Amino acid sequence: MQRYIFREELQQTPAPQPVGFGTNMVGPILIAFGTEAQKRRFLPRIRNIDDWWCQGFSEPGAGSDLASLKTRAVREGEHYVVNGQKTWTTYAQHADWIFCLVRTDPEAKQQEGISFLLIDMRTPGITVRPIITIDGGHEVNEVFFDDVRVPVENLVGEENRGWDCAKLLLGHERTGAARVGVSKERLRRLKYVASQVEEGGRRLIDSPRIREKIAGIEVELKALEMTVLRVLAASKRAGESRNADPASSILKLRGSEIAQSITELMMEVAGPYALPALADPEMDGTNEPGLMEDWARTIAPVYFNWRKLSIFGGTNEIQRQIMSKAFMGL
Amino acid sequence: MNFDLSEEQRLLQESLRRLLADRYGFTQRNAAMAAPEGWSRKIWRSYAELGLLGLPFEEADGGFGGGPVEAMLVAEALGEALTLEPWFTTVVLGGGFLRHGASEAQRRALVPQIAAGEALVAFAQMETQSRYSLSDVATEARRDGDGWVLEGRKRVVLHGDTADWVVVTARTSGARSDRAGIGVFLVPASAPGLLRQGYATVDGQRAAEVTLSGVRVGPDSVLGDPAEGLPLVERVVDEAIAALAAEAVGCMSALHALTLEYLKTRHQFGRAIGQFQVLQHRASDMMVALEQARSMAMYATMMLDEPTPERRSAMSAVKVQIGRSAKLIGQHAVQMHGGIGIATEYAAGHYFKRLAAIDTLFGNVDHHLETLAAEVSAVA
Asked: Which Pfam families match (chain B) (predicted)?
């Protein structure tokens, strides 16, 4: 609950949030499955954000079907030798470490031959290639492994039991996937933009049509916030469970859909003023007055970029599949 | 009703599609986008040779006498290849003002140049406060001897940075939102006092902010009646909506095809993902949306010569359907592609962006729905 409140406040300000790969993802994995030595080595640096982490899960041939991943790790003495490729790796260009799912037993059934390895990004044989997204941003990368030698002490949990870590991790990011704080902030931003744009001498925020649409999203978001709070209250009673929970899928589905609907309404409100693709003067290090209003700058790029919300972390199709199979017996 | 194309129309469509297939692949398009002007002068000359640039003009003026159907076929093919050249701004918008508002002398002077690919035209209409209102014009045109002085700022002028001529709406009399008192002026882009600041748009096209500071133009720069220019603007905007609808249909059909190809070739869980029912249904929804949009693009060509009220309502309906179909097809296409759908190295995301941009032009879905909603009447 405290973590939730902390994150909500950061998101609503909006203030920079700690990159989640450390505290929200690999941290809890190490607490659950790591050795004492691993905990002592990595956890303080995660807490302190001394290390930046990235996640090596998806591969070109293993997206929704994650268990079909092919990156190989072969034991040679006190090392694993890793060969293969990961993709859509967020912030690999900044990361000090990557936590990876690798195949250690190619003969076993798909999910049973996978291990969870921590790899230092400075190890020889790792190449990072940027993927530029249609908003012009550089968040994601391809990461190539060419005979990368990883000490066996960097194996988390048992060999060939890495899928347990993956499952815990994918189910763990529950309340964060709802992005309630982010959506509250975007709604406030939307109202600001709608107060700036006018047509026929009337601000768009005064148009009943726009107000209804905003109110509709606010209702959806309030319901989601209450659902998040129910999940938090329940997990407090039950303790942190290692089992999958339908809540994680519900929160991911609604959280992504609501966030995307706000970006769509933002596009609708900004209309043609969202068209110019202008460089960000702050990024360029100039203080020249912009050609366009500041609020117009990010609306289209965010609309384009946030299509990812229903794709990453298990697509919304996969979430619905999980719910129907695991929780409704269909 | 006859929806078949004539032999000449099929020939036009085929030869343009062949040219684009040969010369306008995704890689060539990206090279054109990266060039300083953001599009290709070389392919522009090929358009001229093919007759695309003089297409809608009367033969007496130096054109080829094409009608709305020919314009639709060209726009659709240009949309399929996601082209970047200023055909829409020069031939549809600029050409529209010349055909419907220019004197014989003005047409004789400019149409042959446009047809030959030597003159580009842009339309400077939108202002900071106007948004989609065509009658909200704060830019002023003051009488100056027998000519005019223009003063004001125009926003997001499509292809305004490379245009040789800019069609400018300006208020000659009345209050800011009056329907009367709007003049339309054909201004050389090189006129002293006309400042252009060009930039790329989010869909990879080009536009400019245009500032007019004491720009002097002669009496021969007026298009139509300087006191009653709005009907001319509305007429040209309706032709623009019809052309955008056709371009969007081209984008949508190409994007749908690209998505089907991906569904058939991408394998997960041991089979092509197109074998999953949820994706099959979604592909079917995309096809429904595509065909509904195609029907409305055709409807637009039929309604362009109808009386003004019917024509205007029809174009609102067209733009609503196009916008809805484009959103559904664009978003589904990206979702079914997954990450690659928003990677800049792959075509799908670029179609998605162009479709999103088209919705923002000349009234989005919400704007035109509001227009249509005002016309809904009670039934006893």
From this structure: Acyl-CoA_dh_1 (PF00441), Acyl-CoA_dh_M (PF02770), Acyl-CoA_dh_N (PF02771)
